[in-house]
């Protein structure tokens, strides 16, 4: 029908615009340079890097490789895959997130453990620290896969600085062991954390100084901030990401990282929605990681706006005790980058 044909034509026109911006920097009209990265989980995903115009891979979900196999991949198989991902990235930064498995992401060869609230249960870094052999094997594989190249490792679902310190100590121990054996060790090792629990935002200043980078895991953080299960259709869309309370909380994280001089990024669905990405950039986030298909639309809007002016509009909306800033920012976006029609 005509409406469907028109929709396809508009989509094709939009794709043409995004393709034209593929090599262009994500720089706002007032000169703020932003970094747009993509999420990946399988070696085949890395081919999208050049295609979508991302600067790098801001989140590589290592657990997907474990979830699609019938048996546990050994250290050699893992290191080969990690090495091939770095090869395919051709020098662009790849952030490997260690296994986020546990009761909410079960491996086919793992015994299921029944939990009332698996998303808040025995998973991710909690699981890894309690199963040090599994975690050590993955850390060894990451180090071997990187060889002498730079390596960025991120620990997920850290709720307390002690968990990060214990995990980092394991990684540094394996790096030192490799060096002692005369093996090539990464020329630069970045060890960061995914901030997904509100508790971590209130960690002592010393924690923010000692992590090499922080990535806000927006999907989990949103559900814990609003106590709204993201798997529950009745509540998952009930609370807007552009809610003033949530943005105020995120502004606190931006300030903590800025004060400590710690690189900060935002990872998740919200980073892939242009209006939300604009709000996050206006808060002070300078790096984002999202699905490859979202890089073009987000880049188009960010390149069209004056970020300082957008921030002013957003702060005014927040100060007026509006429930959120969506309407105010949508007006900014429509003026800056009207959609093709």
How does this structure look, described?
Helix 8 (205-210) links the parallel strand 6 (189-195) and strand 7. The protein has 2 domains: 26-33 and 214-261 and 263-341, TIM Barrel (Alpha-Beta Barrel), CATH 3.20.20.60; 56-207, Phosphoenolpyruvate-binding domains (TIM Barrel), CATH 3.20.20.60. It has an 8-stranded parallel β-barrel with strand order 2-3-4-5-6-7-8-9, surrounded by 7 helices. The chain has helices at residues 2-20, 48-52, 63-67, 75-89, 124-130, 132-146, 161-180, 205-210, 218-226, 244-260, 274-283, 292-304, 307-319, 326-336, and strands spanning 26-27, 33-40, 57-61, 94-97, 151-155, 189-195, 214-217, 264-267, 287-290. It is α/β, with parallel strands linked by helices and 341 residues long. It has 14 helices and 9 strands.
Give a short overview:
This protein is an alpha/beta fold. The protein is built from 14 helices and nine strands. The protein folds into two domains: 135 residues, Phosphoenolpyruvate-binding domains (TIM Barrel); 152 residues, TIM Barrel (Alpha-Beta Barrel), CATH 3.20.20.
The total count of strands amounts to 9
Arithmetic mean pLDDT: 92
Q: What's the CATH class of the largest domain, please?
A: Alpha Beta
Which class do the helix and strand fractions yield? alpha/beta
The name of the CATH topology of the largest domain is TIM Barrel
């Amino acid at each position: 029908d005509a409406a469907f044909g028109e929709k396809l034509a508009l989509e094709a026109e939009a794709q043409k615009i995004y393709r034209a911006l593929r090599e262009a920097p994500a720089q706002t009209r007032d000169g703020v340079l932003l970094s747009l990265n993509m999420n990946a989980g399988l070696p085949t995903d890395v081919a999208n890097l050049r295609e979508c115009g991302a600067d790098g891979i801001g989140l590589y979900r290592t657990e997907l490789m474990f979830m699609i196999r019938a048996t546990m991949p050994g250290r050699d198989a893992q290191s080969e895959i990690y090495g091939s991902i770095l090869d395919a990235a051709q020098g662009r930064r790849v952030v490997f997130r260690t296994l986020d498995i546990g009761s909410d992401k079960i491996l086919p060869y793992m015994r299921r453990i029944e939990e009332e609230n698996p998303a808040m249960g025995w998973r991710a870094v909690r699981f890894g620290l309690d199963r040090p052999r599994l975690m050590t094997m993955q850390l060894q594989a990451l180090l071997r896969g990187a060889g002498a190249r730079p390596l960025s490792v991120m620990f997920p679902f850290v709720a307390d600085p002690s968990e990060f310190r214990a995990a980092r100590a394991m990684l540094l121990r394996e790096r030192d062991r490799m060096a002692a054996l005369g093996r090539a060790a990464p020329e630069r090792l970045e060890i960061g954390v995914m901030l997904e629990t509100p508790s971590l935002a209130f960690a002592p200043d010393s924690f923010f100084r000692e992590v090499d980078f922080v990535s806000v895991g927006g999907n989990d953080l949103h559900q814990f901030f609003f106590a709204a299960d993201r798997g529950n259709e009745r509540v998952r869309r009930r609370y807007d990401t552009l809610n003033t309370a949530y943005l105020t909380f995120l502004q606190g994280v931006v300030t903590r990282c800025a004060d400590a001089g710690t690189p900060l990024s935002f990872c998740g669905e919200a980073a892939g929605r242009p209006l939300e990405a604009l709000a996050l950039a206006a808060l002070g986030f300078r790096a984002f990681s999202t699905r490859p298909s979202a890089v073009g639309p987000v880049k188009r809007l960010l390149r069209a706006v004056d970020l300082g002016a957008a921030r002013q509009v957003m702060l005014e909306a927040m100060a007026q005790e509006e429930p959120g800033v969506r309407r105010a920012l949508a007006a900014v976006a429509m003026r800056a980058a009207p959609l093709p029609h």
